[in-house]
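Hi R.,

As promised, here are both runs. First protein below:
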Amino acid sequence: TSPHISPHLPTSPHVSPHLPISLQDSVYISSFLDAAPLQAMLLDERLRRLLCMRSRVKEVSEASSMCEAVRSLAGAERMSSGGEGMVVFDVCSGKGLGATLLSFLLPRGRVVMLDSNGGMDLSHLRARPNLSFRHVDLFSADTPAVLREEAAGASYVVAVGMHLCGALSPRLIDLAVAGGTIDAMALCPCCLKGAHGKAVARSAAERSVEPYAVLVETLQAICEREIEAAAAGGGARSRVGVWTDREMLSPKNRYITVQKWAADKAAPDVALCQACA
């Protein structure tokens, strides 16, 4: 049993043995082992199953990174209220370890998992009253209406996408920037495919740089074009940010963020952790 886990907790042999070895690899792992959400998850079999995947260390670091991204976008005042009035969309959530940790981070907010796979075991949702799931094809014409429905009454809406592949990243950017529902977006991309992917690979080879760096530049440029078009149409003011989370245990650890604010308001502050710069 890890020294970071209470000996009175019913730890699973699938959970604890492989997390402590990564304490020096990422502050997210040590923080997770010391945090209340882990204790709650170990006490509930429905939640404990989320920690039994082979890639649990990487998954925990990615989920924790998602929480840090949302925390930075939400700001201190919203976080101090437990996320009251907030709705967070976990886009292409899978089973939702990240969404589950977000539900602990924002106990007075709501977290909505969005995924095209409606056949997953989602029994853990019954253990988290502020966590829900919508079976959604992100490319469906109905998706903007689903977002509006789920965000009804919210004072602040964040969409976060972790390691989205192919056209999913540009689609999330379009929904976040062109739509009127989402106030802030944090996108950590994985790859682009098709014509965009070939252009990224070609540019990276010509410049002798990593394809992932060109991928992030490409998506940043898409954000900036979408923002310019939205502003020309009288939309909210927006800004794009790019930052790297060095504590995420993945080489694909860069975020593109978008924040919106009303024309008569000052631009919001963004407070990143020291690892996220």
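And here is the second one, sequence first, then its structure tokens:
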Amino acid sequence: MHKLTQSLAMSATTPSRCSRVAAQVYLGPSRYLPGWRNLAATSNNKNRPRLSPRALVRDLGEKMLLGKDVVELEQLAESVLGEKKFRGKQIYQHLLQGVDSIDSMTSLSKDLRSKLKDGGYMVGRSKVHSRKKASDGTEKLLLELADGQIVECVGIPVDDANKDRLTVCVSSQVGCAMACTFCATGKMGFTRDLTAGEIVDQVFHVQQAFEGSRVSNVVYMGMGEPMMNLKNVVASEQILNKGLGIGARHITVSTVGVPNTIRRLAEHKLQIILAISLHAPNQALRETLIPTAKAYPLEALLQDCVHYFKQTGRRVSFEYILIADVNDSLDDARELARLLQSHGNEMMRSHVNLIPWNAIDDADFKRPSRNRVMAFMRALKREGVSSVSVRRARGAEEGAACGQLRNNLRKARQPGGGLEALASP
């Protein structure tokens, strides 16, 4: 039995802040929402309730052009704006170029651009609030959304075998309701989902930050639980793949596991990489680290992974954060191997990605030594798990691990926090 600290045990039983935080969502300054003054007035009217997070995301999605596919834009052009159908494709091509305003769509007539603006439509690009760059080239961006919320994205350059790659780690939600005890984002609580356009927008911002480099890989491993926002995650993946030409097999969606969603994702038969954030070799320990795991037993999770493999032909990847003296013993490694073995060859062919824990504030965990990490990997291989790797930490010294920079911003906004420390250079 693993002995975790009293504070960890308490955090695992703390009620989710989801409902409390969601009730405080506000619609920010109108300068971020050209043409949306009526909506802002409605939301801030004392005699009317504020928009719920779901309603806000729905309305943002309706008026944001970025995030719509060609068919949706063609329908908008023809049925709503009274234009020829091909105008929708022209709008789509402009969006793929990363334009930040309707006026930048110069192939459209002034009359059509006016119709879009008068109708309250906007491109949907966010503003760069601040940025941090680590010595290894990793760059974290904080983006301010249309409603004043802040999300993170990270650009990770890699020179691999003389082939440059640029990976973007994108967020799928503002905050997260999963409350994982080892995660900085999990300590924020949940605010709202991101629209498909707000997800794609992060890729554009990183592309622009790394001038001359093309984004080659995208991982949904930033803030939020992608499977809780599956509709917009799938919609954004389609734009990244079919619109921007990022190969589906270079796109990874990571999840701690949400009941019924893996099977729903399998129905789309995408050729992406599905990464399961496992982090424990048994149900009891997993529930301590991931409180929501109580609703999704390991047995059910792995059965859904087998189903996913059979439906898509794509092997599942398992992520395992190694935390010193919590889940990093040789016994843990052997138990993990037995867990995968018990679900057949499909799981044994899966890849296991070991991730030494990145330190965050207000956590009592410790990062394991390199020797202990390598011993864990060797133990897995001895037990028959052939595909194992250790993820290299990137950007940790600049708070670029998931959720850290936004947490720093939240603290800086408190009295005496020193907001100027996070200002753009």
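A quick note on the second one: The longest helix spans residues 298-312. Let me know what you think.

Best,
J.
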